[in-house]
Target: Putative membrane protein insertion efficiency factor
Amino acid sequence: MKKILIGLVHGYQRFISPLFPPTCRYYPTCSTYMVTALNKHGAFKGAIMGIARILRCHPFVKGGYDPVPDHFTIFRNKEARDDYRQSMHLK
Model:
């Protein structure tokens, strides 16, 4: 199941995504996040995390650095974001 979902995301990345301008508010992009979550947490939990990330990506969110956490959660990885901002000497 995991391979099928990753294949669908890769198909989106290759054939659909190039048709639109880049608008992702997060780094890594939502599709890359989905693939990483699927590989790290399996088909069910990874899909839930990826879908939650896509739902968080909208015009009213600040965006920024948001890697896949090591533990299952549907919320943003604030600890990694704060560590990144501190290492880059950002506010």
